[in-house]
């Protein structure tokens, strides 16, 4: 360990890269594991939950951590790639301790935990040494007073709390990318997951749902009130919402579609009308669509929208009125790479790629993949027999439908052996035995 005293706060550790001795990043910090036994003695920090290849969560013992600073965590490089499984004697600081209601014994003040400090003791062990507590807001004050106190000066950290809030855990999740937040929610205990889902804004919950496995999506949606479930579905991209609704019981699906805004529900119903794994079923019905009088400057302004995926922002689709799908006559695609070479005041219609063939909604997933590969595209228009634009299939839409279930775990397993042998050779020792995770 580093010779200088180190104190770090758990919430600030989340997302930090984990490096091996060679300076290669091997993962990211996702949580802190501690053994909480009493409220009078500082709990020993057992290790970190690290996220490695394919969002696989592993246990990183503190005995393998050589240094922690403001921007990264360094390890010996000798890590066990076995999937992390929480034991009954362990507590996750981020997942289970934030938002717990506690009382400061010296003053009688009650509040919720919003962070916990890790510190090295004299025996070189890491312990949870301080607790950051926030009082409830009073009057017009949006936030209550905050206190940072010693672990032993707080009551309530070992007590099981049935109605634990999620404000500060949600704040931590909001700082993550949707895919990372989804993975963390997937790993939370059921009661904490329910509290987080209740506290997330509809738009953020929609982003997270799109990144979760189907079984998690269905479970979460089924526990929401119908009105909120419909609001969340409206915030999702129509193709993802259609896939999710298709997994629900027919009566539930019908009820939620009836509660959605008519325009949003119409897009979803249209996507659900196509055969599964066809261009029509996997397309996005809301690409960037412009009229023939739009300028290059207009096109560039539209694709600057940070909510667009890179594949959707790679090109615009020029059509005659109406500009909502299904549109008027489809005129062609304007690739942003070419538009960047044109004068901003020139018309997009003068720089269209009219040569590539379009997709038909009934085309199979293999035909779509062959089309994108043949023309080196990241997206392609889907057009009906009358020449109306119905939507666009992007390469990420295609991959979502082509990759097998559990592909992330398969990827991490295939790399696990290679990385373990690399780390072992770099450290000059054999890899940690696969049977345990404490070595």
Name the CATH superfamily assignment of the largest domain: CBS-domain
Helical residues, percent: 25-40%
Number of domains: 4
Portion of residues in beta strands equals 15-25%
What name does CATH use for the topology of the largest domain? CBS-domain
Q: How far apart are the first and last residues' alpha carbons, in Å?
A: 17 Å
Total number of beta strands: 18
Structural class computed from helices and strand pairing: alpha+beta
Q: What overall geometry do the principal axes of the alpha carbons give?
A: elongated
Largest sheet: 7 strands, mixed
Q: Which CATH architecture of the largest domain is right?
A: Roll
Pfam family, one: CBS
GO cellular component, one term: membrane
Biased composition (Low complexity): 410-430
Protein name: Flagellar motility protein MotE (MotC chaperone)/sporulation protein YlmC with PRC-barrel domain
3D structure, described in words:
This protein is an alpha+beta fold. The protein folds into four domains: 7-87, SH3 type barrels, CATH 2.30.30; 95-155, no CATH class; 168-274, MgtE N-terminal fold (Alpha Horseshoe); 289-402, CBS-domain (Roll), CATH 3.10.580.10. The chain is 34% helix and 22% strand. The chain contains 17 helices and 18 strands. It has helices spanning 10-13, 93-97, 167-174, 178-187, 190-199, 202-209, 214-222, 226-235, 238-246, 250-259, 262-272, 279-282, 296-303, 336-339, 365-374, 395-402, 407-427, and strands at residues 7-9, 17-19, 25-35, 44-52, 56-61, 65-68, 73-75, 91-92, 101-104, 110-120, 126-134, 146-150, 154-155, 289-290, 315-319, 330-335, 379-383, 389-394. The strands form four sheets. Strands 2, 3, 4, 5, 6, 7 and 8 form a seven-stranded mixed β-sheet that branches. Helix 8 crosses helix 10. The chain is elongated.
């Amino acid at each position: 360990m580093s010779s200088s005293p180190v104190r770090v706060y758990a919430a600030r550790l989340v997302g930090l890269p984990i490096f091996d001795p060679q300076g290669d990043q091997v993962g990211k910090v996702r949580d802190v594991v501690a053994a909480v036994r009493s409220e009078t003695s500082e709990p020993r920090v057992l290790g970190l939950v690290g996220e490695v290849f394919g969002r696989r969560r592993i246990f990183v013992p503190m005995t393998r951590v050589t240094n922690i600073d403001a921007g990264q965590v360094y390890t010996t490089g000798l890590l066990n790639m076995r999937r992390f499984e929480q034991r009954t004697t362990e507590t996750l600081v981020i997942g289970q301790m934030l938002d717990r209601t506690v009382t400061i014994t010296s003053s009688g003040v009650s509040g919720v935990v919003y962070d916990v400090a890790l510190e090295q003791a004299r025996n070189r062990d890491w312990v949870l040494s301080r607790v950051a507590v926030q009082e409830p807001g009073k009057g017009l004050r949006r936030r209550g007073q905050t206190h940072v106190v010693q672990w032993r000066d707080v009551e309530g950290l070992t007590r099981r709390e049935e109605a634990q809030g999620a404000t500060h855990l949600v704040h931590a999740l909001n700082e993550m990318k949707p895919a990372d937040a989804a993975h963390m929610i997937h790993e939370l205990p059921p009661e904490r997951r329910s509290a987080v889902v209740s506290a997330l804004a509809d738009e953020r919950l929609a982003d997270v749902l799109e990144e979760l496995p189907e079984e998690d999506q269905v479970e979460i949606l089924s526990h929401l009130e119908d009105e909120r479930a419909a609001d969340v579905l409206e915030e999702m991209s129509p193709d993802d919402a259609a896939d999710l609704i298709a997994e629900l019981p027919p009566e539930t699906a019908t009820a939620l579609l009836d509660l959605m805004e008519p325009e949003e529900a119409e897009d979803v119903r249209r996507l659900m009308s196509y055969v599964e794994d066809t261009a029509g079923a996997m397309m996005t019905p809301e690409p960037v669509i412009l009229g023939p009088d739009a300028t290059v400057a207009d096109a560039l302004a539209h694709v600057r929208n940070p909510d667009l995926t890179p594949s959707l922002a790679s090109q615009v689709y020029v059509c005659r009125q109406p500009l909502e799908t299904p549109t008027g006559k489809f005129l062609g695609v304007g690739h942003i790479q070419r538009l960047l070479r044109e004068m901003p005041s020139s018309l997009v219609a003068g720089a269209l790629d009219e040569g590539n063939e379009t997709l038909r909604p009934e085309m199979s997933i293999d035909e779509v993949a062959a089309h994108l590969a043949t023309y080196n595209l990241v997206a392609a228009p889907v057009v009906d027999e009358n020449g109306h634009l119905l939507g666009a299939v992007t390469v990420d839409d295609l991959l979502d439908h082509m990759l097998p279930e559990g592909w992330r775990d398969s990827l991490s397993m295939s790399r696990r052996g290679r990385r373990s042998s690399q780390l072992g050779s770099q450290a000059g020792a054999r890899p940690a035995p696969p049977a345990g995770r404490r070595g």
